[in-house]
Design goal:
With about 800 residues, this protein is α+β, with helices and mostly antiparallel strands. It contains 17 helices and 43 strands. Strands 37, 38, 39, 40, 41, 42 and 43 form a seven-stranded antiparallel β-sheet that branches.
Length: about 800
Amino acid sequence: ADGETGDNSFNFGFDTDSTGRLLVKVAISYVSIEGARKNLEAELPGWDFDKVRADAKAAWNKELSKIEVSGGTDDQTTNFYTALYHTMIHPNVFNDVDGNYIGHDRQVQNICETKTGSSKLKTENCVEKNASSQSSVPSSQSQQYSVFSLWDTFRAAHPLYTIIDQKRTVDFINTFIRIYEQGGRLPVWELWGEETDTMIGYHAVSVIADAMSKNIKGFDYEKAYAAAKHSAELDHFGLAAYKKRGYISSEDENESVSKTLEYAYNDWCLMSMGAMLFNQRSLGTNRNPRNDAYLKRLSDEIEHYKRRAGNFENLFDTETRFFRPRRNGGFIKPFAPEEVTFHFTEGNSWQYSFFVPHDVSGLIQLMGGTEKFVGKLDELFTTKTKLSGREQPDITGLMGQYAHGNEPSHHIAYLYNYAAVPSKTQQRVRRIMDEFYKPTPDGLIGNEDCGQLSAWYVLSASGFYPVLPGDGRYDLGTPLFKQIVFNLENGKKFVIRAPKVSQRNIYINSAKWNGRRHPASYITHDQIRAGGIFEFDMIDRPNDKAFSSYSSSTVFRDHPAVPVIDGERVFKDETVVTIRSLNPRDRITYSIDNYGEEFARKTQTYTGPFTISETSKVEAYVTSPWNGAESLKVEAQFARRENDWAVKIISPYSSQYTGGGDDAIIDGLRGTANFASGEWQGYQGRTFEAVIDLRKETGIRSVGGSFLQVASSWIWMPDRIEFELSSDGVNFTRVAEIKPGFSQQEMKSVTKEFRQSITPTTARYVRVKAYNFGKIPAWHPGAGGDPWIFVDEILIN
């Protein structure tokens, strides 16, 4: 390898024996060459190729035999074991055979050592003991793991591991805790000892909460809870705004809707973890002040995260019945639920409007009741509307607007159970299994994402799926095989039988658990762990009375949702402001701050729309009529235009980055460092050109513009900016050329103004052109592509 040129090609020459054979074996280590040699010696001794192949086959057969299926077609069986194999490729063992690995502090750590202050102690027999939890972690058998695609895998892959691989589940969570201790926070999307922060949320808490709800032992519950709280209270990725106002606004952060909804679910996981610890400590203990203080703290934290878990309501629009992005206190307009924008993570409002797994009952209420909820689900699967907006290759496997090729949709087909129409879950799930999984090279409808797409199939083919990881339940769907046997680590067998299942018999007529009628549309992890026989009687027609009860989530209604404030953000003479709440019976209180004059600074009860004619800030909150609880406060800024200029955009801007329309470059609103905040106009691969009409001959002393660079997102400062003046709008004279000279390699988000004084001149029209530098350079991941120019304001003095 050439360290100077970065050329990592190798050339070898060999003298072989008369047979011409060349024997090669390879080992790797992320720690050292010595570590790789030890791994090779321990894991691949000698030169017996046939033995290595036989050992590998035996190892995989042992793993794949954890679930035995029978009674399906050859294609179904191939699909199932291919899927099960895929779920076992990641996560990967990261430590060497001697226990060494690179920690998230970039130091060499050892799986058999524990830190005490600044020193390291070798633990006896490699067993870590924790006095506070009175548990022992058998580190002699444990491993450090890597590759945690948690935004994907928290949904089904990790719940599957809690059934067939509890030992590794414990290792995964202990890995999380070590990552927290060494790197300062739980993993988000961890890859080979590095945090990529590729996706959103803090879903390590989901994996931990799910294991705790299933009473899986072997990790320190208290330490895991502390690490989870730390992740929840950070201020990055929109969390600061989320904590302040109860939702993330588009001004704060990209993908604001998705992040708000997923943070709310993560907070439910924290609430559940706190409740489990509270119950453990409060039962069977003697009263003492220290324990009482601990329980009081836990109780406060449970209420805190319970309130945050209800934050999904703050983005629900009662008029459209969708979750929508907000800006400046109101909802962004116009709105189309099929549009793919930067307000969502690899999705749109159709797909994310069903992501409230921790409060499906509350979501049903928001949607207008059971009948309307079912109608909305039906429309999701059957609508003829097509995706619009930005190109997003991850959204695949479409049925209507349901997108099975990407994770946000994976639980949705099971939501019919919560509306007492389980037959629709059964029909949708069977169709997905039949159409989107094939035993062919292109047999998956989307990105495997470290086993999540396949984990959905493994569990769904078994007849159940976890809509809500963290509560120990699995919602029933429709089994694919006549018999499935889970060979559990505790030596017991969990058997699912559906002797009448066929291509036509996809509906459940009744269910039995160990010979007794099973009336619920879910099973519990405790039932699975205990072993036994779960039997389905399958028929060819829907029977929604098969289950006399259906699973229901916790309802959060202790605090009302924040209000919505609407009005023209920038107005000419005056604007009408309206405020509304999620519940029409809520009392809305507001105040108006006229930036110092305070003509109406005192709070007052909202009785109807009001008019403002000066630049102002409106602040409002809601009080519940039921318990007097108050919402968080929301504010909106309204600005009176300082000019009456008009603008003509010569080069069209992107429909995704309009800044609010043509006037965005002269309205006085300044963009944040977030390129999708709504104030920026975006132009890709073309010159930005516009003509500004000052309405009359005006003296001009300087010209300039405000631009954004986020090179990691293909957005750069202009290469040069030209200004021309005219009195008639036809004949223009150049008066300024600005060359920003800004470093193309600055990858972080930067906003910058560029101004240039000119000889005082009188003119009515100002033409501005901003040129990009051509094609994206070779050093950038987007090499050869077209760069963007983002502008939020043309500055004319």
